[in-house]
Amino acid sequence: MKSSLARTGPGYGRGEAPRIRLMVVDDSMVARAVLTRMLEADGGFEIAAVAGTAEDAIDALAQVRVDIILLDLEMPGAGGLKSIPKILEAAHGAQVMIVSSLAEEGAEETVAALALGAADTIPKPGTGRFNGRFSEVLMAKLRALGRVENQHPAPPRSVASIPTRVMPLRAEAVGTLRLVAIGASTGGIHALSTFFDALPSKIGVPILVTQHLPAPFMSVFARQLSNASGREAIVAEDGLRLLPDRIVIAPGDAHLTVDISGGRLIARLTRNRVSSGCLPSVDPMLTSAATLLGSEALGIVLTGMGRDGLEGAMALIAAGGSVIVQDEATSAVWGMPRAVADAGLACAVLPPAKIARRVAARAGAD
């Protein structure tokens, strides 16, 4: 049943912090009503529009500006998953948060949605279970995604509207490259897809990836990353040999680090606590690369919340290595990259495709 509503209020009053403007897209009238009541009960959110299909959502986005779109995947018509690119195109910089019963741990649809550009996902609970833990987690995710937009309530976030930042950049290390280590979190799967799409098929060095995801997602993530990149991508096992052009991914329940055995680079898995609280964490990966390879290692920090990767970047720079970070305009959340950039540790701040070209040039593969 067709259902859409756009509300055109400003979302904030004089002297008040702007509320995060949301669109709820779900074919269930009950789910729309429950989510609307739950979110509007919190003074930090405003439901600016609702829709019952992806097609209705795209139509509504022509009339109303929002910060975040809560999107179900199972709907009549084209459905939520296939419609993500069109929704993002119509959304004028808004983020997409998947709220769906399909977003279970390990679900193919979850990783596919993230690869298509969704910023984050959360499983939709059964009727009567929207309060409690679900409500707390959802609101925390929405606040993190909406933070950037609400620093500048109008116009909506775009490349043109993000203020230019002047930050010091370091010279990139020169000479032999033996390892590329990439860290990412929220929005990272889409950024990784863009990065690998622009990277030459042969750069001649192993590639490590630490992406914040639960363990059950990892085999699906590896398979999709392999398809997107056109190269082998596997979940790390302790002692696994690191081969040129093979992507090795941190499992969801361990840190991925690099070691050497018999003169060959291998993967090591550790589970020690780290200051970021993340498991897996980008910091141990970059720190181990610094200790073992120094200037021959290149770190990359992509979109994500928090500061994971900062300590590892410090260690890598101190050992003579280099770090490139994703720019604000293309990041779902400019937290992890910003922490590294603001600390003066980055040699470049670029979109994923341009990062890939820098990597290729360093590896002599462009």
Automatic annotation (TrEMBL):
EC number(s) stated in the UniProt entry for this protein: 3.1.1.61, 3.5.1.44
Keyword DNA repair applies: no
GO biological process, one term: methylation
Keywords: Chemotaxis, Cytoplasm, Hydrolase, Methyltransferase, Phosphoprotein, Transferase
Domain CheB-type methylesterase: 168-366
Posttranslational modification: Phosphorylated by CheA. Phosphorylation of the N-terminal regulatory domain activates the methylesterase activity.
A GO term, aspect molecular function: methyltransferase activity
Span of domain Response regulatory: 21-139
Catalytic residues (positions): S185, H212, D308
Entries under SUPFAM superfamilies matching the protein: CheY-like, Methylesterase CheB, C-terminal domain
Reaction catalyzed: [protein]-L-glutamate 5-O-methyl ester + H2O = L-glutamyl-[protein] + methanol + H(+); L-glutaminyl-[protein] + H2O = L-glutamyl-[protein] + NH4(+)
Cellular localisation: Cytoplasm
4-aspartylphosphate sites (modified residues): D72
The organism's place on the tree of life at top rank: Bacteria
Comment text on domains: Contains a C-terminal catalytic domain, and an N-terminal region which modulates catalytic activity.
Family note: Belongs to the CheB family.
Function in brief: Involved in chemotaxis. Part of a chemotaxis signal transduction system that modulates chemotaxis in response to various stimuli. Catalyzes the demethylation of specific methylglutamate residues introduced into the chemoreceptors (methyl-accepting chemotaxis proteins or MCP) by CheR. Also mediates the irreversible deamidation of specific glutamine residues to glutamic acid.
Protein name: Protein-glutamate methylesterase/protein-glutamine glutaminase
